[in-house]
Amino acid sequence: MACCKGPGYSSPLDAFKNGAREKLLYVVCVQPDLTKQDYLATVDVDPESPTYNQVIHRTYTGSVGDELHHSGWNVCSSCHDNPDLKRNLLILPALHSAKIFAVDVGTNPRKPELHKVIDGAEMKSFNCAYPHTAHCLATGDIMISTMGDKNGNGKGDFILVDAKNLKVTGTWTKGDKIAKFGYDFWYQPYYDVMIASEWGSPKSFTCGFRPEDVPNRDLYGASLNVYKWSTRELQQVIDLGDEGCGPLEIRFLHDPKASQGFVGCAVEANIFRFYKATDGTWKAQKVIDIPAKTVKKDGEEFKLNGLMSDILLSLDDKYLYTSCWLHGDVRQYDVTDPEHPKLKGRIVLGGRVVNDDLTVIEDKEFQEMTQKPVYVKNKRLYGSPQMIQLSLDGKRLYVSSSLYSPWDKQIYPKMTEKGGWLVKLDVDIENGGLKLDPDFLIDFGSEPNGPVLPHEMRYPGGDCTSDIWLVKE
User: Fold this and answer.
1) 50-58 CB contacts, 8 Å cutoff, 24+ apart
2) Which residues contact 413 (CB under 8 A, 6 or more apart)?
C-alpha cells in the first residue's frame, strides 16, 4: 500500500508501483471567443463509471480574457511528511490577465468549485506578469514562474504565494541577476539547484508565431538558467545555441538524487540533456534531433520543423515522451541510457502535413511521404497533439490539442473553429510502443458555450509532471 502520511507519495517508485488508477482528469480549457469564460473541465476517465469518457463538470473563471494555460497544486509530494497538509487546491495562473485562480478540488473532486481569485494587480505590483508554471515548495508555499514584466517585456522571475491565505508575498529571486526570459522550472534541493527554461518576450509570442522573430535573441530565448536553490541566486546561464531555441518544458529525472534531466527545445524540435559536470557546473548536450521535413505547397518548397511543444518522463525514469505540434506526432523514447535515447514508439495524430495538405518532398527519418487525417469515433482530429499527461503506472498517455490560443488560431484555424480534442494512447511499458484507443475521445467542439481549446491536464492525486520529491535520508 502507498504511504499516506501527507499529500502524494513517499517516492516516485511508490507512486509508480502503488498509485491508484486515475479516475478523473482536470483539463484547462481556453475560450477562443474572448467574450466567453475559460474553465476547468472535469473529465471522467474511470472505465467502470457510467459517465466514462465525458466532461462531467465545468468550473468557470467568472471573467473573460484570462487565457488559462498551466496549473499546479497548493501542496504536492514534496510535503509528504506533513500530515497536516492536503492537496486540495488546484492553482490556475492566467497568462493574459495575471490572475491566479485557486480551485477547490478536495471538497467534491467531481464538481470542483472556485475557491479564490488572486487579482493580477498583486503579481504586477512586483513587476511580474505572464505566469506559467506553478510548483509547491516543501515549505507549503506556492512558486509560480513568470515570463514578462507588467509591460510585456521579457523577464524571467518567480512569484511566491502563501498557500494558507493565498496572497502574493513577493518574488523568489535574490541578487542582482534576473533571467532575460522565463517559462518552466524544476528544483532539485539535493544538489542545491533549480533550473529554469525560457520562451521569449510576451510582446512577440502573444502576437502569434512569427518566424522572423525567432533568430532575434531579444525576442526568443535559447538558454537554461541555473539557480542556487538555497540562496535563490542566478549563478549560471547555459547557452544552447540556435538548435536550442525556445527551450520549454524542463524535467529532472524523478529520482530526487538524479543530477540530470531533459529539456525540449521547441523551434528546432530537439531535446537536450542537462547534467552536473565533475567541476560542479551544469552542462547540456543535444541527445535527440528531430529533423525538419521538406514540404511543398502551391509549388513552393520549404522546411517544416517539428515545433516540440511538450515532454515528460515516466515515474520510473525509463521513458521520455514528447509531442511535435507542427509535425503532428507523439513519440516514446527509452532513456534508460540518458545520453543515448532510443525511439521505441511513435504515432501521428495530425500536424500541418495533414491539416494544410502539404506534400512531403523529403523526410530524413521515415519512409511514409503522406499522412491521412485521423478519426476517432467518427470525429476527425483537426489540429495536432500538444500537451501530454501520463498515468502513474505509465500505461496510459492522454493527449490534448491546444498550444496557446493566439497560435491555435493562426496555425490550426480549423481546430479553433471545430474545437480541440483529448485522446488516450495505450502504452507498452515493457517493450515500448503506443496505440491509439479507438473508443476514447473528448470532443471539445460540442461544449455548451461553443468550441474550446483544451490544454494542460492534471489528476486529483498528482501526476508525472506536478510532483517533485525530496531525498529522505
Assistant:
1) 53/439, 53/440, 53/441, 53/442, 54/442, 55/442, 55/447, 56/110, 56/111, 57/110, 57/111, 57/112, 58/29, 58/447, 58/448
2) none
Contact 6, 82 (CB under 8 A): yes
In whole angstroms, give the CA distance from residue 433 to residue 445.
Answer: 29
Q: What is the pLDDT of residue 113?
A: 98
The enclosing H or E element of 354 equals helix 352-355
- Cα gap 443→401, rounded to integer Å: 11
Pair type for strands 421-427 and 434-443: antiparallel
Please write the tens of the pLDDT for every residue from 401-445: 999 999 999 999 999 999 999 999 999 999 999 999 999 999 999
Helices (H), 59-196: 120-124
Residue 363 cell numbers, joined: 523526410
Instruction: Give the count of beta carbons closer than 10 Å to the beta carbon of residue 245.
Output: 21
Output the pTM of the full model: 0.97
Answer whether 229's CB lies under 8 Å from 192's CB.
yes
Question: What gap in Å lies between CA 413 and CA 104, rounded to an integer?
Answer: 33
Contact 332, 346 (CB under 8 A): yes
CA 473 to CA 470: how far, in whole Å? 9
Distance of alpha carbon 235 from alpha carbon 55, whole angstroms: 45
- Cβ atoms of 251 and 465 within 8 Å: the answer is yes
pLDDT reported for residue 2 = 43
Rounded CA-CA distance 314/330 in Å is: 15
d(CA 179, CA 31): 31
Strand, coil or helix: 78 = helix
Long-range Cβ pairs for the range 190-193 (8 Å, 24+): 190/256, 190/257, 190/470, 190/471, 191/259, 191/276, 192/228, 192/229, 192/230, 193/226, 193/227, 193/228, 193/229, 193/276, 193/282
Please list the residues that pair with 434 across neighbouring strands.
427
Tell me phi and psi for residue 8, to 5 degrees. Answer: 80, -145
